[in-house]
Amino acid sequence: MAQTYQLSQDAFDRLQTEYDDLTTRGRIEIAQKIEAARELGDLKENGDYHAAKEEQGKMEGRIGHLGAMLENAEIVTGDVDLSEVSAGCVVGIAFAGDDDIEKYLIGSIEERREGIEVMSAGSAMGKALVGAKLNETVTFEAPAGPVSVTVVSIEP
């Protein structure tokens, strides 16, 4: 079963625009670079050719990733339930024994916002936080051992 990507309408539209650009203009430009590099001669020692082919591979990887995200996207509306942590909300947390509050947007890295780190709902901490209520403490397993955090705010 394919992974579902929860995206805002803005993120979906931005990704669709990027996908359309890469599959049209991007592919044409990279094909022109490869053709120009081929005309330089021997492909074994042709740095321009190898660089263009590497760029093509990275671009095709991005196209594939965007295509999968767009095909399996679930548009999340602005109506986020603020009674518990869920995808699309900004959660403020405090680590056990620490008074500093860190804020994270729960969702896809494609949802990034200025000044707020993004946390995947599928990460260890994200899984522990999704469904948690305000002032609830959750524990998750980190590489260094169990870590506890308290939900101090939930914002749209």
Could you characterize what this model shows?
This protein is of the alpha/beta class. The protein has 2 domains: 5-75, Transcription elongation factor, GreA/GreB, N-terminal domain (Helix Hairpins), CATH 1.10.287.180; 90-155, Roll (Chitinase A, domain 3), CATH 3.10.50.30. The protein is built from 3 helices and 7 strands. The chain has helices at residues 9-38, 47-71, 124-129; strands at 5-7, 73-75, 90-95, 102-106, 117-119, 137-142, 145-155. The strands form 2 sheets. Strands 5-4-3-7-6 form a 5-stranded mixed sheet. Strands 1-2 form a two-stranded parallel ribbon. β6 and β7 (145-155) form a beta hairpin. The protein is elongated, with a radius of gyration of 21 Å. The model has no long low-confidence stretch (mean pLDDT 87).
Instruction: Assign the CATH superfamily of the largest domain.
Output: Transcription elongation factor, GreA/GreB, N-terminal domain
Q: Helix- and strand-based class?
A: alpha/beta
How many domains is the backbone divided into? 2
Count of DSSP H/I helices: 3
The helix/strand order is EHHEEEEHEE
Shape: elongated
- Low-pLDDT residue intervals, each spanning 5 or more residues: none
CATH-derived topology of the largest domain: Helix Hairpins
How many beta-strand elements?
Answer: 7
Rg from Cα: 21 Å
> CATH first level of the largest domain: which class?
Mainly Alpha
Proportion of beta-strand residues: 15-25%
- Average pLDDT for all residues: 87
Q: Mind describing the biggest β-sheet?
A: 5 strands, mixed
Distance between the termini: 29 Å
Q: Percent range for helical residues?
A: 25-40%
